[in-house]
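Tip: read the tokens left to right.
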């Protein structure tokens, strides 16, 4: 089997509708590799026996259309200079691989080291106060001595403040986005993304080219932020929102989770933190 064909099979596995990362790993383990899943007729006849598959998902796996879609995606990956990492590749981020629901495939643009010595996720509300923006900037500035890589989601608010501050102080920064790498949302942050890539950072996603924007993509993206980080720090957040989802996921991964204590009257700090699983540092 050629390397190119194996890459197509890896992409096809990640694109199987309704399978998900956990069942995808079960399939690879049962079949003895990803190539056998798509080429070995004897193996394919017994796929119903794989835990979590059964007849409900069998038709999806056997549909030859998924291979055609994967071939088109592989062409786009090569044409657009995107790096593709399968979860069994040695270059796949070590921290993220420890999560049972880590993406089967991770697409990256940029030269950032995905396994640096230290990684810190900084997340928060899309509508921060000036006080919150200042705290975020001070936090990133204070991490310069550690050489930490700053990870966030390139969204409005705290996310982009973290990325911009990292660029200003010379720290590498990685953005995990909720769409394919052929586009950027929000478009206003395209310049920031280009600067990140040009300065040793990266933009990463698990979604293929031309993936539609969908609300469900954002919580899924948040697990990449949490999974790639040693710790997640919430700067400001409402009682609901993506930053608290990220914090909860990081807590579930047994990673450090911290938050700035806030003024009791501010709904983006005290009330929100108290209603989440985030622990408040003493200072």
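Filled-in amino acids:
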């Amino acid at each position: 089997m050629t390397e190119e064909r194996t890459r197509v099979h890896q992409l096809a596995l990640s694109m199987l509708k309704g399978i998900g990362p956990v069942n995808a790993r079960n399939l690879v383990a049962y079949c003895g590799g990803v190539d056998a899943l798509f080429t070995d007729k004897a193996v394919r006849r017994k796929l119903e026996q794989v835990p979590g598959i059964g007849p409900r998902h069998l038709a999806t796996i056997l549909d030859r259309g998924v291979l055609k879609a994967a071939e088109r995606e592989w062409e786009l990956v090569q044409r657009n200079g995107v790096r593709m990492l399968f979860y069994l590749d040695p270059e796949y981020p070590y921290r993220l691989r420890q999560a049972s629901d880590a993406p089967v495939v991770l697409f990256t643009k940029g030269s950032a080291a995905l396994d640096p010595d230290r990684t810190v996720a900084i997340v928060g509300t899309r509508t921060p106060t000036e006080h919150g923006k200042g705290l975020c900037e001070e936090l990133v500035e204070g991490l310069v001595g550690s050489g930490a890589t700053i990870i966030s989601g390139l969204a409005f608010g705290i996310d982009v403040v973290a990325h911009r501050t990292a660029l200003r102080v010379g720290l590498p920064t990685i953005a995990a986005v909720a769409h394919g790498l052929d586009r950027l949302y929000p478009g206003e942050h395209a310049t920031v993304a280009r600067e990140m890539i040009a300065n040793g950072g990266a933009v990463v996603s698990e979604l293929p080219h031309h993936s539609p924007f969908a609300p469900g993509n954002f919580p899924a993206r948040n697990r990449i932020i949490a999974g790639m980080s040693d710790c997640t720090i919430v700067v400001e957040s409402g009682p609901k929102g993506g930053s608290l989802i990220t914090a909860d996921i990081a807590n579930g991964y047994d990673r450090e989770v911290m938050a700035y204590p806030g003024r009791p009257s501010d709904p983006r700090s005290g009330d929100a933190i108290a209603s989440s699983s985030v622990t408040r540092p003493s200072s």
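The first helix runs from residue 3 to 14. Confidence is low (pLDDT under 50) at residues 270-276, 278-283.
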